[in-house]
Fold:
Amino acid sequence: MDYDPTEIMAVCAARTLKDGQVVFAGAGVPIIASLAAQKLHAPSLTVLFEVGAVAPIVEIGRIPSSANESRSAYGSVMFPTTTETLLFCQRGFVDIGFLGGAQIDKYGNLNSSIIGSWDRPKVRMPGSGGANDIASCTNFLVVTWHEKKRFVEKVDFITSPGYLQGGNSRREAGLVGGGPLQVITHLGILGFDPERKEMVLKAVHPGVDPQEARANTDWDLKVADDLVVTEPPTKEELDIFRRLDPERRFLKVK
Structure:
């Protein structure tokens, strides 16, 4: 079947979401994957957007360009402030957070703030927005392109905490709940060792050699003994994504 790496990444992200869950969707692929999941297999999935929208109605062909514009609020059952929406995470009302970032390290810490040193950064990025709240208080998924400059041994700045230094360090820092569940990339799906909290390659997409994932990671990435191959996208899945994003604003191929 004809599909590209970005499409299988987005399809696998949508498959992780279950009917009846509440998902806090960040910008980019998380938005389109959440909406696709609603239309494919999770009609009762409740989507939250950072603008304050709770369970908005998003029509095919009218997908919002970000989580902070008016189309992301149309038909919402509630429209609290952004602060109140983020408090839903702290109160335990959110099942899954959905994030991305410019860098991620072996413990799932995300950087969307700076590249380089804090005093003299090479690149200054948008920063946290609500991402720190989501990462600190919920179980979350990460969707990102798999390349060495993103999968770094240690992020330049922790914008959104994963398992910090691994082991029990997240809990010891006072973040008693949540943490990264999976990292979904254009090469495969990564989980976390239950004890060390270090990232492990759990699955590769069809045609991908696990060594390609290891070569695009800036540390010695472990590969699961029971490594599997993901199911390729179905015609129905691809059709939904292509109708949701006909201009490929979200599903851009690197």
Remarks:
- The CA atoms of residues 152 and 218 lie 5 Å apart.
- The radius of gyration is 17 Å.
- The mean pLDDT is 91.
